[in-house]
Design goal:
- This protein has helices at residues 9-21, 27-35, 39-51, 55-67, 71-84, 87-99, 103-119.
- It is an all-alpha fold.
- The chain has a single domain (9-119), classed as Tetratricopeptide repeat domain (Serine Threonine Protein Phosphatase 5, Tetratricopeptide repeat, Alpha Horseshoe).
- Helix 1 (9-21) packs across helix 3 (39-51), helix 2 (27-35) packs across helix 3 and helix 4 packs antiparallel against helix 5.
Length: 120
């Protein structure tokens, strides 16, 4: 993806580094990117919100990213459900992305299967 030709090009680069490589980004920058409509910003901000226990807000931003077709948003939302112990909802969100070949989603689906097996 190319850098938008806007004054926010520096913000875009920060978001892409966080999204692609896990580089740190401030919550303020992630929030700004999400609010500007950067789909990857929605994912990064949603993950950040989840990391600080603001799960309802995280879920909202991750769902928005999913409506834009972002597979990482699906994996992140599924992981949020997985962390809550809601294996059915985690699988519902993650399975379509795993079936499309996404490696992260396949790993998350394997984790769901392991947790289900451990419950038996």
């Amino acid at each position: 993806m190319s850098v938008p030709a806007t004054p926010d090009a520096a913000l875009w680069r920060l978001v892409r580094a966080a999204y692609d490589d896990g580089h740190p980004i401030s919550m303020q920058d992630a929030a700004r990117a999400a609010e500007l409509g950067y789909v990857q910003g929605m994912v990064v901000y949603g993950i950040g919100l989840g990391n600080v226990g603001r799960d309802a807000e995280a879920e909202g931003w991750l769902r928005r990213s999913i409506t834009h077709g972002d597979p990482m948003g699906s994996v992140a939302l599924g992981t949020l459900y997985l962390d809550r112990g809601d294996l059915d909802e985690a699988e519902r969100v993650i399975r379509p992305v795993a079936e499309s070949g996404n490696a992260g989603a396949k790993e998350a689906l394997a984790e769901i299967r392991q947790r289900r097996a451990a419950r038996r």
